[in-house]
Amino acid sequence: MIKLFFGIDAGISGAIVALDEYGDVVAWRTLPHYKGKHRSELDGDKLASWITSEVLMPTHCQPHQCAVVAEESPSYGMGSVSAYTSGYNNGRLHECLRNTFHRRPQRIRPQDWQLEIYQRKLTGADDNKAISIARAKESHGEMSGAFNVKKYADGISDALHIAEYCRRLQSDALKTAKKP
């Protein structure tokens, strides 16, 4: 049985959120990075340590009892250096998740989770960040100041919505599997 649902918004200002089976936030954090020689690099060791010691151990949850969804981070419209950095860090993220959970995370396009969570397709005229933060505050409150740092607020709120998408996806899969 799935006990925890992880949602990950990849990127420099991305985050990870873990929800329980009831949709309550178990833990959250921004993705840890360090300044490498040429770019900001995801700190996979620090992320894996946080997942293990701050989430799995306190909840007595095993990696196979978790569902993990990570947002795809396409390089559309990025310059070549940004696209390379994004791809490099995305690879590091997936390596960390595979080593921690012993399988690859499910990948999701932003449009897919947004349609499920917002119940409508966002357009270019929409302020995606403001919508994400407002919806996250409606459903989970301030989360101990998670949305106070402007740079990370939308990464945290997106990760929260991705985790909720993951929880709904697993719930629907379980309902379908139980039908005769």
Describe the structure.
The protein has one domain: Nucleotidyltransferase, domain 5 (2-Layer Sandwich), CATH 3.30.420.10. The model has no long low-confidence stretch (mean pLDDT 88). Helix content is 49%, strand content 18%. The longest helix has 29 residues, at 150-178. The strands form two sheets. The protein has a five-stranded mixed β-sheet with strand order 3-2-1-6-7. Strands 4-5 form a two-stranded antiparallel sheet. The chain is an alpha/beta fold and 180 residues long. The chain is built from five helices and seven strands. The radius of gyration is 16 Å and the shape is globular.
Low-pLDDT residue spans: none
- Strand order in the sheet with the most strands: 3-2-1-6-7
Number of domains: 1
Tally of alpha and pi helices: 5
Terminal residue distance: 19 Å
Strand residues, percent:
15-25%
What is the overall shape?
Answer: globular
Following the backbone from N to C, one meets helices and strands in this order, namely: EEEEEHEHEHHH
